[in-house]
Specification:
five-stranded mixed β-sheet; Nucleotidyltransferase, domain 5; 10 strands; 338 residues; alpha/beta; globular; 10 helices
């Protein structure tokens, strides 16, 4: 089954053709990083307008790269939630128009389910069930993947997402956008014990995260030093900060793995590309005898191939949308409302 997938939830206009949920026939991503860099983050209105400009060409290129015509496709899939509502609407409306004009069924895909499915593309042998830590700029979840379309949220952030936490600290340090990526690069040369930073916990919810206090602590260190005219060792602060963030992610995930007696762990989302997180999880998995699944770096960020992978399993489940499909800025991963 060949599915044309479209992703436009944030600042990447992407399209891909995926066969049977496991094989990428083509994958095209038009990034907006340079346009948002001058603002230090994604500007939703600009993102939406750039999606409108790029989407037709990106989709046509994906079909061409796959060596197919539209008549060779079996379905159209699209990210419909969660994300920036204006950006999502561009992809959803384009996909609906394409579905109506070609007669192909329309498959709605939850963005976080797509991130988890990036592991199916990297590991064709991987099947549920397994635990997955989904970490990105807008989300931090520990999810028990019971089946391809059945998910249970074990833990999640109560405030900031891990990626947002990294981005805001990077911005306070004057690092260019995307902040988390540049913070990771600088941290390599730093001493991760140079600064004492909190490791917030959520009372009564041992699997949940809270990153706002950690973010505030780092920003206070930066501002206090600036007010005193002191210079901060950026490499040391980045390393210490990254250690605190990843310690929280690893600690809670490890608890969930033990308590739910899981033996297989996957990572997903943009922050799953972080070198420190990948290294720590690799060590933890080895120590506990767990199988660890890490998506290819090119599949960690937003892309349409992951949407095409998950769409295959949504289709098998009968999750087909009509022409009334709408976009939603927020929606839990364990819901499928469309």
């Amino acid at each position: 089954m060949k599915i044309l997938a479209i992703e436009s939830s944030c600042d990447e206009t992407a399209a891909a053709v995926v066969e049977n949920g496991r094989k990428i026939l083509s994958s095209v991503v038009a990034t907006q990083i340079e346009s948002h860099k001058i603002f230090g983050g994604v500007v939703p209105e600009i993102a939406s307008r750039m999606h409108i400009e790029a989407i037709s060409g990106v989709v046509a290129e994906a079909v061409l790269d796959a060596g197919l015509s539209y008549s060779d496709l079996d379905a159209v899939a699209v990210t419909y939630s969660p994300g920036l509502i204006g950006a999502l609407l561009v992809g959803v409306n384009f996909a609906k128009g394409l579905s109506m004009s070609t007669g192909l069924p329309l498959i709605p895909v939850h963005h976080l389910r797509g991130h988890i499915a990036s592991n199916y593309l990297t590991y064709p042998e991987l099947e549920p069930s397994f635990m997955c830590l989904v970490v990105s700029g807008g989300h931090s979840h520990i999810v028990l993947v019971k089946d391809y379309t059945e998910f249970e949220i074990i833990g999640k952030t109560r405030d900031d997402a891990a990626g947002e936490c990294l981005d805001k600290a990077a911005r306070a340090l004057g690092l260019p956008y995307p902040g988390g990526v540049n913070l990771d690069k600088i941290a390599v040369n730093g001493n991760d014990s140079a600064f004492s930073l909190p490791h917030p916990k959520v009372e009564g919810s041992k699997y949940d995260f809270s990153f706002s206090g950690l973010k505030t602590a780092a920003i206070n260190i930066i501002h206090n030093a600036s007010q005193k005219g002191e210079e901060i060792n950026r490499e040391d602060l980045c390393a210490s900060y990254l250690k605190a963030v990843t310690d929280c992610l690893c600690s809670n995930t490890q608890k969930a793995m033990h308590d739910f007696d899981c033996k297989r762990l996957a990572l997903a989302g943009g922050v799953s590309a972080n070198s420190v997180l990948r290294s720590k999880m690799t060590s933890i998995a080895r120590e506990n005898g767990w199988e660890l699944f890490l998506p290819e770096l090119k599949l960690c960020g937003d892309n349409a191939a992951m949407i095409g992978s998950q769409a295959y399993y949504e289709f098998q489940k009968g999750n087909i949308a009509s022409s009334t499909l709408n976009a939603y800025a927020t929606m839990p991963i364990d819901k499928a409302v469309f």
